[in-house]
Amino acid sequence: MDNESSNVSQAEEIKVQANEAFKAHKYGQAIDLYTQAIELNSQNAVYWANRAFAHTKLEEYGSAIQDATKAIEGYYRRGAAYLAMGKFKEALKDFQQVKKICPNDPDATKKLKECEKAVMKLKFEEAISVPESERRFVADSIDYHSIEVEPQYSGAKIEGDVVTLDFVKKMMDDFKNQKCLHKRYAFQIVLQVREMLRSQPSLVDINVPDGSHFTVCGDVHGQFYDLINIFELNGLPSEENPYLFNGDFVDRGSFSVEVILTLFALKCMCPSAIYLARGNHESRSMNKIYGFEGEVRSKLSEKFVELFAEVFCCLPLAHVINQKVFVVHGGLFSVDGVKLSDIKAVDRFCEPPEE
């Protein structure tokens, strides 16, 4: 990590020297310096673009085309990565560069428009945002007890306020048969899990007794039948068979609603049987692009879109198992010296920042 950071820094210093050589019309020297920068950090599209420009000054058009192609690929790949991470402002800059070089590329045009729309929406949301202390949560406006369950409804039902194993099994069977859960019970599950998650720290310590086992699962991404298969192979979550699902429960797959309601119901049934961490797809920006928001609106209602967004902000960010194993969705940090106490102190009740 330190060596990589040093290479990036050194490459930037050489790029400055190369730029000065270019300004002085010393194009051969500039090409040599840009080459050194590329050898240290070949992922930076700017170096390729600058060297291509220097080649054109020397009428070395074949080399210029090769470098320009590398530059386009670099901008495109980085822009696509930024877009996938929800860093729309950075993605916009890269796709603007691609558009300048390839004005007729349909995919670049599509992604550029996508970024422009997302950035415009972010600016609008910032303009109308209110301080956290003045915010009104949609969860506080919902009284699920007042929602009537129609006599003809034959799906899973929660008796009273307790989510039981029998209910969870019935609900999962209904989902497997493409049946929906009544909105009353969906509200009840999501609101109950919200209260549980709000009381947890940003970093949760998990103790697994000697002789016991513990299962950690990665991205489910709306693949309900894969989730069912995991439980069939490994058993349902329980105090004796606990799980940690490490984020990215929703988006991409077609059954994100079924996945998230199943995980939340299991959490309500037995909080110590299942732990849930926040991934980058538990955020508004990702849910708008990758399908969860539209699925929720179709299967449930607009109010659920807002409710899930609020609950996702309550999910813990990281877990530590037996003071030995650190589990977090997004990997290690971009800076050194981060302590567990720093993570515990993070105010997570918000949308993730761009940085």
From TrEMBL:
SUPFAM superfamilies: Metallo-dependent phosphatases (SSF56300), TPR-like (SSF48452). GO terms for molecular function: metal ion binding; protein serine/threonine phosphatase activity. InterPro entries: Calcineurin-like_PHP, Metallo-depent_PP-like, PPP_dom, PPP_phosphatase, Ser/Thr-sp_prot-phosphatase, TPR-like_helical_dom_sf, TPR_rpt. This is protein-serine/threonine phosphatase. TPR repeats lie at residues 72-105. The keyword Repeat applies. It is an enzyme of class 3 (hydrolase). The keyword Protein biosynthesis does not apply. Its EC number is 3.1.3.16. Keywords: Hydrolase, Manganese, Metal-binding, Repeat, TPR repeat. Gene3D superfamilies: 3.60.21.10, Tetratricopeptide repeat domain. Its cofactor is Mn(2+).
